[in-house]
Amino acid sequence: MNSTLPPSDIRVIFDRIAPVYDDLNQWLSLGQHQIWKAMTVKWAAPQAGDLGLDICCGSGDLARRLARAVAPTGQVIGVDFSEAQLAIARHRHISQSPHLPLEWILGDALRLPLESGIFDCITMGYGLRNVTDIPRSLQEIHRLLKPGAKAALLDFHQPDQALWRRFQGWYLDTIVVPLAQNYGLTDEYAYITSSLARFPLGPEQVELAYQAGFAEAIHYPIAGGMMGVLVLEKGK
Fold this sequence. Notes:
Layout (H helix, E strand, L loop, with lengths): L6 H11 L3 H8 L4 H11 L7 E5 L5 H10 L4 E6 L2 H14 L5 E5 L12 E7 L8 H11 E12 L5 H21 L3 H13 L3 H10 L4 E7 L4 E7 L3
Parallel strand pairs: 1-2, 1-4, 2-3, 4-5
Antiparallel strand pairs: 5-7, 6-7
């Protein structure tokens, strides 16, 4: 259920892949990640004027989408534990979309330096699979949400159907990892295969969400189950 790597090793991986993170995600998602991120933001149900949070924000793509949804009177905080990823997020914010209401902070998804019960909506992209304690991460999201508010968590998954699992394995081995090798990041992206193998399937994620205190939890499989969005709602 949890990552077998210590947090320091996972941080090193994300620091190293930061410069090419978006390019490789484009390949890893079969070019569909922008569509899936748009779906994720929609399921988080942001409204103009909301205070939103994007956990494990990486280079800030999902946070910027969320900020557009709460603008002009709302605010979004993007948080990540990788300084290298945050540096890219800040640079893109300033250079490409300085008008968006965004703030960037360094923080651990398991112990965020943020007040309880203040967020109207939360997103997370490709983060839950990489935390060292999934139940604790879900509890932290529950803590941060306002009563009745929603979170939407997008991630890669191991499909439950054998045909899609074989396709995913082939795609990772023959397309993604060799592409990462061109960037000198073979070991970093080879880590994906092991992270997928231990990541709970959709129904297991739903059960963990209920255990964390959520009133509603639905998992939506995408692309034959190779992707999924876990949508959570805190009780009122």
